[in-house]
Amino acid sequence: MSNRKSREIRLKSRPNGMVKPENFELAEVTLPAPGDGQVLVRNAYMTVDPYMRGRMMDRQSYVPPFQIGEALTGGAVGQVVEAGPGAQFKVGDHVQSFGGWREAFVANGPELMMQKIDPIPGVGIQSYLGSLGMPGMTAYAGLLRVGEFKPEDSVFVSAASGAVGAVVCQIAKAKGSKRVVGSAGSDEKCAWLKEIGCDEAINYKTCGDLNAAVAKAFPDGIGVYFDNVGGAHLEAALGNMRQFGRLAECGMIEQYNATDMPPGPRNMILIVGLSLTVRGFIVSNHYDMLPDFMRDMATWIAAGKMKWKETIYDGIERAPEAFIGLFRGENFGKMLVRVGPDKAV
Ligand SMILES: NC(=O)c1ccc[n+]([C@@H]2O[C@H](COP(=O)([O-])OP(=O)(O)OC[C@H]3O[C@@H](n4cnc5c(N)ncnc54)[C@H](OP(=O)(O)O)[C@@H]3O)[C@@H](O)[C@H]2O)c1
């Protein structure tokens, strides 16, 4: 019999304002043997994502809230270590699932949206939680479909060195944009953005007047703004859009921990005169693009046109710290937690 112990992170209390370590607790469980159709999966990596902050609040949204006293859920990649009779996966299969925030779990395939992955040689399986997974797909659908990107568009991206942002910048370049500018919260992140092809990068923490910095970076205006941040970034982007420009509203991390709704951009009136399109989206409504996304990503990776960074925290007990770090810019690229060996069997 294999070891069936697993540690998991539970929601202890709902955060009020900035999420804190004491909102979480670590617990150990002993898993049952997998029954009919079930498998026991040992996770190698789990993801922490900004949207999980919304699930910590007791409100209805496009995903149900996490429950106090229960283990959180989220994306994970791992390996099947035991299979029950009639299971659709074999021992040794690599799978991605929604069974994150724990070291191991027992489930059948559909329960946790489990899917087999065939790792691409030279690309770690954790990439299925980042550039080859949900964040990459968000970048692809958000820029190409929601932002209706065309090669003549100049593109401004906020949180540009992050999991979604870095992919947006590189897709825009790979698809022929002549001007891509990203903003990020450190000089190191900005230097890397130039390495991956951005024409300019703005350190929003040191640039002073963000509106003026964006105006300087886009003398002919912005064609598409890919918004990951909201707030001051959104106002600066609105102030510098071209006529018929599009704003792909992907996220507004600046206000995920806010206790009061901050006032909106003061220059919304520009949407009218410039005939702008402002469109929010949720990636799960765009998974019909998945085959195109996987094909294009494989081509760009092979051509050296797609690079990404990862920040990896070791140990399930560090998952809360990794999650909190997202709101402090402590991740350089995709924030991940390694919860077990890459190969469990
Ligand atoms: N619509 C969808 O379906 C969908 C799907 C996935 C993600 N998203 C959204 O996409 C955005 C990026 O997600 P991600 O997973 O790629 O995260 P990420 O960019 O890898 O990590 C979050 C980054 O946001 C920046 N940040 C944090 N607080 C900030 C603040 N107050 N002002 C400005 N920047 C701040 C930090 O970078 P700096 O060091 O640069 O500040 C941090 O590293 C989030 O808003 C997320 O909610 C939406």
Total strand count, please?
Answer: 15
Quote the average pLDDT: 96
Radius of gyration using CA atoms only = 21 Å
Report the uncertain regions.
none
Beta-strand share of residues: 15-25%
Bound molecule types? NADP nicotinamide-adenine-dinucleotide phosphate
Report helical residue fraction.
Answer: 10-25%
Structural class: alpha/beta
C-alpha end-to-end distance? 13 Å
DSSP helical segment count: 9
Biggest sheet architecture? 7 strands, mixed
H-E string:
EEEHEEEEHEHEHEHEHEHEHEHE
Shape: globular
Search tags:
globular; 345 residues; 6-stranded parallel sheet; binds NADP nicotinamide-adenine-dinucleotide phosphate; alpha/beta; 7-stranded mixed sheet
Written description of the protein model:
- The protein has 345 residues and is an alpha/beta fold.
- Helices cover 23% and strands 24% of the residues.
- Strands 3, 4, 5, 6, 7, 14 and 15 form a seven-stranded mixed β-sheet that branches. Strands 10-9-8-11-12-13 form a six-stranded parallel β-sheet, sandwiched between helices.
- Strand 11 (222-227), helix 6 (231-238) and strand 12 (241-249) form a beta-alpha-beta unit.
- Helix 2 packs across helix 3.
- Bound molecules: NADP nicotinamide-adenine-dinucleotide phosphate.
- Residues 49-51, 135, 138, 159, 161-165, 184-186, 189, 228-229, 250-251, 253-254, 281-283, 326-327, 329, 331, 334-335 line the site of NADP nicotinamide-adenine-dinucleotide phosphate (NAP).
